[in-house]
Write a structure and sequence with these properties.
Chain lengths: 302, 154
């Protein structure tokens, strides 16, 4: 995996993904080390992102690495009209690895072809966000003890949610049964369903959650954004349907866990937070270990 | 002499070069563009809305003193999937082939996604052909699918 950019989850084989997850487990046991002390990591965030950026920077800092970069494009030479090409070619000279978030889709692939140092895609518009997928896989594996043969329910905006698309594609390697819960307007796109069909896996589609909850091992909730609806009344109705309450998870399996990529709005009531089945904040913490594993693998030092 | 051969040609014969026949009528200008014939210096003859027994109406392009590499010609399969290519030497048909949609397409089609890096930076769009029958082109960069309906040429 040395020097291999991660732009899209499919850039890494199943074995490479599993290797990262195994390594993440070691970092979870010992997250503070000095193995990155001789490395400079560039963190280029062309648009703001609290969670992802801090998680990456925390991962690097805890391993003793140095970070250069910016958290928004507005006070950089991009504002002076510098092209992405020139920014990448320059920054590649200053660092050993580049972490980039950019709202332009395909920008990470483009950067990985220009740069002589590896690129980690921290989100390119609506396209890919592979480190989220790795941390989701890690969270599933950690809570279930396995990734194989699970019943995974995904709820909310399955049409536009890039984390959903990448996770579905990654889970196709693990004989998953998919339970897809969404409003009719926000169903999983056929281009993603194609992966499920190609792997001859089962999927079921629903418009309400109730029926799915007792079957699921994992409930992966996502946010439904108001701007996806042309009719505000329809949004209000849907918002109430896709709202998880504590009472709803009482009759679920013992191993049942609720995941959410965060930020959440109203789709998970805060009364779920205190349940041992709520896992979304630990999930966010797992992102640090997974990113430590990824960065050190790519740099060839783990 | 064979009857077929004496029928009047709507477009004059060429001595040496390439004839591209069975182009859909609405695609003749696109074929000219894809093959970069706008800048070509030798004789180019073309016609459109010709009667065709097989296809109703068709277009034809004849390019004098030019023989194309198959990968060049295959690019036109995106707009003229049934086109036949005839190589002419000394007014005689030397070979007749049909075009084939390539597995990868570089530089000729625009990605339909306005937020794709290929529409923002100096970089050519590259597509992997995901489905040759319905024509679904998956962008190498933004991974979105450009279809026949959303396809535009550079």
């Amino acid at each position: 995996m040395k020097n291999k950019s991660l732009v899209s989850i499919n850039d890494y084989t199943k074995d490479e993904q599993l290797r990262i997850l195994d390594l993440a487990e070691k970092f979870e046991k010992k997250p503070v080390q000095t193995i990155l002390k001789d490395h400079v990591i560039a963190s280029l965030f062309f648009e703001p992102s609290t969670r992802t950026r801090l998680s990456f920077e925390s991962a690097v800092n805890r391993l003793g690495g140095k970070i250069v970069g910016f958290s928004e494009a507005s006070n950089t030479s991009i504002k002076k009209g510098e092209s992405l090409r020139d920014t990448i070619l320059t920054v590649a000279n200053y660092s050993d690895l580049i972490i980039m978030r950019n709202p332009i889709e395909g920008s990470a692939r483009f950067a990985s072809e220009l740069s002589h140092v590896p690129i980690i895609n921290a989100g390119d518009g609506a396209n890919q966000h592979p480190t989220q997928t790795l941390l989701d896989l890690y969270s599933i594996k950690k809570t279930q003890g396995t990734l194989d043969n699970l019943h995974i329910a995904m709820v909310g905006d399955l049409k536009y949610g890039r984390t959903i698309h990448s996770l579905v594609i990654a889970l196709c390697n693990f004989n998953t049964t998919f339970h897809l819960v969404s409003p009719v307007e926000l169903k999983l796109p056929s281009s993603v369903k194609m992966h499920i069909k190609e792997n001859k896996l089962a999927y079921h589609q629903y418009t309400e959650m109730d029926e799915v909850l007792p079957k699921a091992d994992i409930l992966y909730m996502t946010r439904i954004q108001q701007e996806r609806f042309s009719d505000p009344l329809e949004y209000e109705r849907i918002k109430n349907v896709y709202n998880l309450h504590h009472d709803m998870i009482l009759n679920t399996k013992d191993n049942f866990r609720v995941l959410h990529p965060l930020p959440r709005v109203s789709e998970i009531n805060i009364n779920v937070d205190k349940s041992p089945k709520a896992y979304y904040f630990e999930q966010a913490l797992n992102g640090v270990f997974v990113r430590q594993a990824l960065i050190t693998s790519i740099l060839g030092i783990a | 002499m064979d009857n077929k051969k004496v029928k009047e040609l709507k477009v004059s014969a060429i001595e040496n070069g390439t004839v591209i026949d069975h182009i859909p009528s609405n695609a003749v200008f696109k074929v000219i563009r894809i093959l970069k014939l706008e800048a070509f210096e030798n004789m180019v003859l073309f016609a459109t809305n010709l009667e065709s027994k097989k296809y109703g109406k068709k277009g034809i392009v004849k390019v004098s003193n030019k023989f194309f590499a198959p990968e060049e010609l295959n690019k036109i399969a995106l707009v003229a999937p049934l086109a036949s290519v005839i190589e002419i030497r000394d007014f005689q048909v030397r070979s007749k082939t049909i075009v084939e949609i390539p597995d990868k397409i570089k530089g000729i089609v625009k990605c339909f996604n306005p937020n794709c890096v290929t529409n923002k930076e100096e970089v050519s769009a590259i597509f992997v052909v995901a489905d040759k029958e319905t024509i679904r082109l998956k962008c190498h960069y933004c991974e979105k699918i450009t279809t026949r309906e959303t396809m535009e040429f550079r």
